[in-house]
Amino acid sequence: MKTNLLLLEADHARLLDLLNEGMPRPTGEAREALAALLAQAKVTARIEEADDRVGLHDRITLISPLDPEDWIEFEVVLPTEADVDADRISVLAPISLAVLGRRSGDPVAWEAPGGLRKLVISAVRKQALPA
Q1: How many other CB atoms are there within 10 angstroms of residue 20's CB atom?
Q2: Closest C-alpha among 47, 21, 46, 36 to residue 98
Q3: How many CB atoms within 10 Å of residue 89?
Q4: Is beta strand 71-77 parallel, antiparallel or unpaired with respect to 88-90?
């Protein structure tokens, strides 16, 4: 099966650690979703190959193809770094799992509290990694 998901080797390793012994260790649906994503993603050590792909600490803009006023912007982070008020969303959240490994222009869908959301990744901005 061909996959459209691509993760940097370093992000893949961090997420495997999170899955296996992490901080906090995911349970239930989040664990299953993360395990499935890691199992199907292609992994690369070449930063330039993953330059347009969503990874940890990237800032993402999602937009509705039908309504340009309907958009979301956030940063994908590890659970211990999450801060909703600062738009830093845990990689275990459904929205983050929907975008991880995908590229600008890809449609994404996830189950939100108000029902199924369907948006398109309009921008992926690489952030400086935390110290």
Answers
A1: 9
A2: 36
A3: 22
A4: parallel
Residue type, 31: R
Amino acid letter, residue 113: P
Q: How far apart are CA 28 and CA 66, in angstroms?
A: 33
Cα 27 from chain centre: 17
Q: How far apart are CA 87 and CA 103, in angstroms?
A: 20
**Residue 18 contacts residue 34 (beta carbons within 8 Å):** yes
Interhelix angle 9-21/28-40, rounded to 10 degrees, is: 150
pLDDT tens digit sequence for 16-36? 988 887 656 667 888 889 999
Q: Can you give the pTM of this predicted structure?
A: 0.88
